[in-house]
Structures are given as structure tokens and as C-alpha cells.
Design goal:
Helices cover 57% and strands 32% of the residues. With 77 residues, the chain is of the alpha+beta class.
Amino acid sequence: MARTNGLLILGVILVIVGLVALAIPEFTTRQTDQVAKLGPLNVQATHDTTHVIPPLLSGGVLVLGIVLVGVGVAQRR
């Protein structure tokens, strides 16, 4: 019974992650690097990096989540 609950929870989490990844396929992160340090003076540069989540990966996670939810429900009966 505990394993079934684990499969259901994992499946629901994967479904949510897959849906969010399909809805928002790219996100941007910022990284600040220290370029130079001269005594009390710090020179920093900020870089924006865009990350893209492939739709095939998002769909695969969504399908895997749906399958796990189905297996969890089937084992519960």
C-alpha cells in the first residue's frame, strides 16, 4: 500500500513538472562574476543565460507521470 502511494505521488509530481515545462519552455538565470578587485573596489559583470527545455522532454515527463498515476491507481484496486 505504501508503494502505491509513492507511485501516485511521484506520478502527480511528474505530471505537474511536465505541464509547467510545456507551458514555460525557457527560463533565464543570472550569474555575477567578479572581474577585478583593486583594494576596496570590486568590478563585477552580470551574465544572463537562457535555458531551453525541449518539448519532447517535457512531453516525455508528462507521459511518464500519467503512466505512473495509472499504475498506482490500478494497484490500489
